[in-house]
Design brief:
The complex is a heterodimer. By secondary structure, chain A is an all-alpha fold. Helices cover 75% and strands 0% of the residues of chain A. Chain A contains 18 helices and no strands. In chain B, helix 1 packs across helix 3. Chain B is built from three helices and four strands, in the order E-H-E-H-E-E-H. The chains are: A mainly alpha, B alpha+beta.
Chain lengths: 391, 78
């Protein structure tokens, strides 16, 4: 019965929307058009040569990188310094799917290395997974991509240490978690490394942009970028034929497919919503006028950075949708500093995740964690904004 | 026999459930399939990465989707 009611309510909602939305209004018309322009822009510029290779890389990581070896550093008996370091960077290989972040957090907190490494992982994980870094750097510029990764790594350690300091008395004896059995690698490390490197090069060269002036190194590479990408593709195929078993390749393709299936619809929706609300970058045609956005989060004031962190902390971003939304916001006048603040606070926290966090570690710790995330994201945003010359 | 699938409801967990159902059907064994989706409950198994799979309370795999063949092997072992 419950599902039937839900269907009924959905139909009523669609009907009311269809009845009342002022499609005749110029702003609504332009906003709808914009959202499809933005979708086309993604389809033309980012899907084939950025997202598709990135999915294959993420799929490869989940199949061929030994994740169990990382889990060792999160156990209750693990060396504390090592667990902070590993927690802050392991998001690159562990957190490709945002739904793995919370269970891992709960596991590290309750059964493993404790609250410090757990919160470090929670903060940095979503920001530094491979797909997020690649798409941020590609769409929003390499500076923001790099700042996002570095900011997340450094500040996750700070947040973790502070949380451990505040709640040092409450750490108690814990039962140890089941550490998955460590499978010996089936091929030498250098072969796996070469396999990932050639995929990275395919992605980099296939997506190589045309430089503004046809001179110098960038242009020289641009002229041959298809040959370079093709060369690495041939190399990759040769490696797959000679070094990998059929079953492994099948597993790789199927995990790539799972990522694509999971992320593409979300990203598709995110791009449409971003285009509808903010218009494509540089055009003031979305539903929200650019002047509102630039008055709230333009420039690099304390308020703009703080506001961006708070909004980021409350809003829920499905995997990677933060990228088109930020692209729209930046295009409407958001400053670089607030953009980074939102990127740091956003994926780590949302209202739904706060509720889950509260059930895991209690109200007080959750509030302190939220406060730290918002405060540090604001500070990093301001530093970055100053560095980028936004005043 | 009791098969528990531990996972918060992400696509990987759904794939795991589908694989389990396939394995159980192919083997024709009598098994109770239970989904455990509360993080608190998942923690009680000592599992940090989802999806995970437990047969009669014993955790068989963590953080990966088991193939129907793998599951069939475990079912035969019980």
């Amino acid at each position: 019965m419950k599902t039937e009611w839900r269907k009924f309510l959905l139909i009523v909602a669609v009907f009311i929307a269809a009845y009342y939305i002022p499609f005749g209004h110029a702003r609504v018309q332009s906003a709808i058009l914009e959202s499809f322009y933005m979708l086309q822009d993604y389809a033309r510029r980012h899907v084939l040569f950025c997202l598709v290779p990135a999915f294959f890389i993420a799929g490869g990581i989940s199949v061929f990188v030994n994740q169990a070896s990382v889990m060792r550093y999160f156990g209750a008996q693990a060396n504390k310094i090592l667990s902070y370091g590993v927690a802050s960077i392991s998001g690159t290989i562990l957190a490709v799917c945002s739904c793995t972040v919370l269970p891992l957090f709960a596991g590290i907190y309750k059964r493993g290395a404790g609250i410090g490494p757990a919160t470090a992982f929670l903060y940095s994980g979503p920001a530094i997974n491979v797909l997020a870094i690649i798409l941020t750097a590609r769409v929003l510029g390499w500076q923001l991509g790099l700042a996002r990764a570095l900011g997340a790594i450094i500040f996750s350690i700070v947040i973790g240490l502070l949380m451990a300091l505040f709640f040092r008395k409450e750490e108690s004896e814990k039962a140890n978690a089941v550490i998955p059995e460590i499978k010996e690698g089936e091929r030498p490390l250098w072969k796996t490394a070469l396999y990932f490197l050639s995929m990275m090069f395919i992605l980099i060269f296939a997506a190589w942009g045309k430089p503004a002036q046809p001179v110098g190194f960038w242009d020289a590479v641009y002229n041959i970028h298809w040959y370079l990408a093709g060369g690495f593709l041939i190399l990759l195929v040769l490696m797959l034929i000679y070094w990998f078993k059929r079953d492994e390749i099948k597993e790789w393709v199927s995990s790539t497919w799972i990522f694509a299936k999971m992320i593409l619809p979300l990203l598709f929706g995110g791009v449409l919503v971003a285009g509808l609300l903010m218009g494509s970058p540089g055009n003031d045609t979305g539903l929200i006028p650019s002047s509102y956005i630039s008055s709230l989060v333009g420039g690099n004031s304390i308020f703009a950075n703080f506001f961006a962190s708070v909004v980021g902390a409350l809003m829920y971003f499905a995997t990677l949708t933060e990228v088109p939304i930020l692209q729209g916001l930046i295009g409407s006048g958001m400053g670089q500093g607030p953009a980074l603040a939102l990127l740091l606070a956003g994926p780590a926290l949302s209202l739904p995740s706060m509720i889950v966090l509260r059930s895991i570690m209690g109200t007080k710790k959750t509030l302190v964690f939220i406060f730290l995330v918002v405060a540090l994201s604001t500070i990093v945003g301001m530093l970055f904004g100053t560095l980028m010359g936004g005043a | 026999m009791k098969i528990e699938i531990l996972g918060t409801g992400c696509p990987k967990c759904k794939q795991t459930l589908a694989n389990v159902e396939k394995a159980v059907k192919d083997l024709g064994v009598d098994a109770e399939i239970v989904k455990v989706d509360k993080i608190q409950d998942i923690m009680n198994y000592g599992v940090m990465m989802t999806p995970a799979l437990a047969i009669n309370g014993e955790v068989k795999i963590v953080g990966k989707i088991p193939t129907p063949n793998q599951i069939a092997e475990w079912l035969k072992g019980n």
